[in-house]
Structures are given as structure tokens and as C-alpha cells.
């Protein structure tokens, strides 16, 4: 924490989560900075790599593409995203993200509001890439 009370988390200090595919790092969350309204972080996908389909029954998801070419399927409808594009996924909308480019892709994400308990925040609608892996640890009430 800085003198002003600002909390900073370096992305490389966070263990990647690979349950749904890609390299997902939750940097700002109830666990890391005691946030109360949501959580966010960085997502990295290699060419052809995907985050499996799921939805959030309590949260909107905001995604901003830093680099690469991605395709987000929202309830099955494709939306192409490139560097500088932002997208909001409404509560309850199924979504799947794929790196459709030839280069690694990186995006920043934020979900808000928080689910009442972390285990209620994601509902998988296809088999996760690593089903035995834990969900990202965002912290909060259990």
C-alpha cells in the first residue's frame, strides 16, 4: 500500500488460473485489495486458445483488448475484437472467447457486482479446459 492508501498489484505476482483456458490473473479483488464492488485482472491467450463458454448470474463483465485479435461469442453470436476495442457482457449472457489471430492476445477484464459468494459467480456451459483446477480465487464471503 502507498502513502495515499492506493493498493497496487503486479500482474506477474499473481498465479495464473487456467481452469477455463488461457492465462487468467485476478489482480484486483476482495482477496488482493479488499475490494467490495467487483474484481478484475488480465487475460492472455495464445493463438487458437480459448476461454470456455460460461455465464455470470450476478455480474456484468467488461473486457478491453490490449493486443491481438479475439472473437467473443455472446449467446452464440460472434463479435470480433481487436486492440483498443471494449465490450460489455450483460448479466446472464453465455460467452466464449477465442484468440483468432496469429499473435498472442491480451485483455483486461472487470466483473461487477460481486456474486453473493465466489462459487456462485461462474456457471460453466461447456466442459472447462482444466476441469480439476480451482476457480480463480477472488476472495470474499464463502
Give a structural overview:
The longest helix is centred in the N-terminal third of the chain and has 4 residues, at 30-33. The chain starts with 22 loop residues before the first strand and ends in an 18-residue tail after the last strand. The protein contains one helix and ten strands, in the order E-H-E-E-E-E-E-E-E-E-E. The strands form two sheets. Strands 1-2-9-4-7 form a five-stranded antiparallel β-sheet. It has one helix at residues 30-33; strands at residues 23-28, 39-45, 50-55, 60-67, 69-74, 77-82, 86-89, 95-99, 105-112, 123-124. The protein is an all-beta fold and 142 residues long.
**What would the average pLDDT be, to the nearest integer?**
94
Oligomer: single chain
Strand order across the biggest sheet? Answer: 1-2-9-4-7
Detail the poorly predicted runs.
Answer: none
- Distance between the ends: 25 Å
Amino acid at each position: 500500500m502507498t502513502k495515499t492508501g492506493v493498493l497496487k498489484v503486479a500482474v506477474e505476482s499473481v498465479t495464473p488460473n487456467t481452469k477455463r483456458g488461457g492465462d487468467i490473473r485476478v489482480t484486483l479483488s476482495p482477496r488482493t485489495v479488499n475490494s467490495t464492488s467487483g474484481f478484475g485482472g488480465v487475460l492472455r491467450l495464445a493463438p487458437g486458445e480459448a476461454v470456455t463458454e460460461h455465464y455470470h448470474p450476478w455480474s456484468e463483465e467488461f473486457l478491453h483488448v490490449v493486443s491481438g485479435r479475439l472473437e467473443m461469442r455472446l449467446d452464440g453470436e460472434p463479435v470480433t475484437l481487436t486492440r483498443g476495442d471494449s465490450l460489455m457482457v450483460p448479466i446472464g449472457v453465455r460467452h466464449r472467447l477465442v484468440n483468432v489471430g496469429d499473435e498472442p492476445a491480451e485483455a483486461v477484464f472487470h466483473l461487477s457486482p460481486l456474486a453473493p459468494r465466489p462459487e456462485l459467480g461462474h456457471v460453466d456451459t461447456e466442459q472447462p479446459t482444466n476441469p480439476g483446477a480451482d476457480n480463480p480465487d477472488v476472495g470474499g464471503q464463502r
